[in-house]
Design a protein that fits this description.
The protein folds into two domains: 96 residues, Rossmann fold, CATH 3.40.50; 135 residues, Rossmann fold (3-Layer(aba) Sandwich). It is globular and about 50 Å long. The longest helix has 23 residues. The protein is an alpha/beta fold and 299 residues long. It is built from ten helices and eleven strands. The structure holds guanine. The site of guanine has 9 residues, from strand 4 and helix 6.
């Protein structure tokens, strides 16, 4: 069996450290970090993610506010809500759960979040700062992947990292993080997507292969290099009549097919997912500290 990269365990360590930092903030400065989560409509997967984020806030001691907004809200109304959250002294981080309904102008909503409260790191200002290597904060899933690797004893420096998927949430910002001239990065990064030719040739040369394409069990054993590391970012719902809910969550990697060929692999669930939420907590605490004056927690 390969080494199983345990995101649940690493995320618990990070949340423990944050809980201690939050309680010190309260004790010493009477400050409580606050996160506002905005959910538009009733996408079932989004509802699950939002409730996981609320639970994490409670675990770490972060104040959380959930704003449930009807599907038919206008872009203008949503921007108005975000502007009021930008001004709120109780709120240090704002997260608008994506995807938004089709009629809403997503870029306008993202750009209305104050860059200082943009704990997702989706605002173009923060995306640009990330790309030039001077980030205000790091995007949750990509930063979670980097931390998961490092805390599992896998350093991407000098390695060939192949990312599958060019999304704005994972692929592109992960590329930006791992190619930087900085400790824990310094990787040679290849970004593959749906138009990539010779995909198998490229993935087979990866020391670290990171799959974030949203295709169940896309990565098979013949696509990976023997002894490599595989990180699975996929959370795909597939029908399963034997499951209580009628579906199960599977990754982008065919774990059973790949497991005997690789050195280490992150599972789904229990891999990247919990790390994303831990990083969201970290961004909220750090945003609070920088908005209220004080030093950052952790790297
Ligand atoms: N939808 C899928 N992933 C994310 C995420 O990391 N943040 C937000 N806001 N929405 C998402």
């Amino acid at each position: 069996m390969p080494f199983i990269i345990d995101g649940k365990k690493v995320s618990l360590q990070i949340k423990d450290e944050l809980r201690a930092a939050v309680s010190a903030l309260k004790r010493e400065k009477n400050i409580v970090p606050g996160l506002a989560v905005v959910l538009v409509g009733s996408n079932p997967a989004s509802k699950v993610y939002v409730s996981m984020k609320e639970k994490a806030c409670a675990e770490v001691g972060v104040y959380s506010e959930k704003h449930l907004i009807g599907e038919d809200v206008s872009t203008e109304k949503l921007v108005e809500l975000i502007k009021s959250l930008n001004k709120s002294g109780k709120i240090h981080g704002i997260l608008v759960q994506l995807p938004l309904p089709g009629h809403i102008k997503e870029e306008q909503v993202i750009e209305s979040v104050s860059p200082l409260k943009d704990v997702d790191c989706f605002h173009p200002y923060n995306v640009g700062r990330l790309l030039i290597g001077d980030p205000v904060m790091l995007p949750c899933t990509p930063a979670g992947i980097q931390q998961l690797l490092l805390k599992s004893g896998i350093n991407p420096e000098g390695r060939h990292v192949v990312i599958l998927g060019r999304s704005n949430i994972v692929g592109k910002p992960l590329f930006s993080i791992l190619c930087q001239k900085s400790a824990g990065a310094n990787a040679t990064v290849t970004l593959c997507h749906s138009r990539t030719q010779n995909m198998k040739e490229i993935t087979s040369s990866a020391d670290i292969l990171i799959a974030a394409i949203g295709k169940p069990h896309f990565v098979k054993a013949d696509m990976v290099k023997a002894g490599s590391v595989v990180i699975d970012v996929g959370t795909n719902r597939v029908d399963d009549k034997t499951a209580e809910k009628g579906y199960k969550i599977v990754g982008d990697v065919d774990f059973e097919d790949v497991k005997n060929k690789v050195k280490a692999i992150s599972p789904v669930p229990g891999g990247v997912g919990p790390m994303t939420i831990a990083m969201l907590m970290k961004n909220t605490v750090n945003a609070c500290i920088s908005q209220t004056g004080g030093g950052n927690q952790g790297e």
